[in-house]
Amino acid sequence: MKKPLIIGLTGSIGMGKSPVAAMFADENVPVFDADAAVHDLQKAGGALVPVIEVAFPGTTGADGVDRKALGAAVFGDRDRLALLESIIHPAVAERRKLFLASHQDADMILFDIPLLFEKGGQAGVDVVVVVSAPAAVQRERVLARPNMTTEKFKHILALQMNDAEKRARADHIIDTGQDIAETRADVQALVKKLRAGLA
Q1: Digit-coded pLDDT (tens) for 123-139
Q2: Residue 173 host element (H or E)
Q3: Burial letters for 66-85: b for 16+ Cβ neighbours within 10 Å, e otherwise?
């Protein structure tokens, strides 16, 4: 049986990954959103809530995981962050496997994975698409987010592979620093190209 082409979509914070993933979905490409899976696993009644509470006491409540408290518990501490990732990543990988199994009839599937390169996820995809925008645009977008500070932004960037390196490793790059209609046209052209390659 023919397997779907697996596209890995990644990009640094504020590069416009979510809007681009939505554009792929508009082209009838099923999208697995790793961040959404994490939110689901951590919400009230989520599968990871009790496990996270045991590992990080006081970081969960009636609404599930308190992301602010959990963020504070791991901020700047690589060992604690590694512990948290060892809880989250296998659970997300399991969700991804189920998603793949339920979309076996699709010609292609998109995995939206923020830390694709950082966590070695590129080994599990056929094509890597990186979303990218000029540094000034990225900075402006990120600092406009609620509760974001320059220090926090610097810290996040330090944990991520830099944009130039991501672009160098990409099979395709989607520029989100241009007009949104142009970005959409680029996504449509790429989907068309990939589909033609599958024919």
Answers
A1: 889 999 999 999 999 99
A2: strand 172-175
A3: beeebeebbeeeeeeeebbe
51: closest CA among 95, 85, 74?
A: 85
Q: Delineate the domains of the chain, giving CATH numbers in brackets.
A: 1-30+107-199 (3.40.50.300), 41-102 (no CATH)
Query: Model's pTM, two decimal places?
Result: 0.87
**Whether the Cβ atoms of residue 135 and residue 163 lie closer than 8 Å to each other:** yes
- CA 176/CA 163 separation, integer angstroms: 13
Q: Is 3 exposed, middle or buried (0-12, 13-18, 19+ CB in 10 A)?
A: exposed
Q: What is the DSSP letter of 29?
A: -
The burial class, CB within 10 Å (0-12 / 13-18 / 19+), for 52 is buried
The bridge status of strand 64-65 relative to strand 172-175 is unpaired
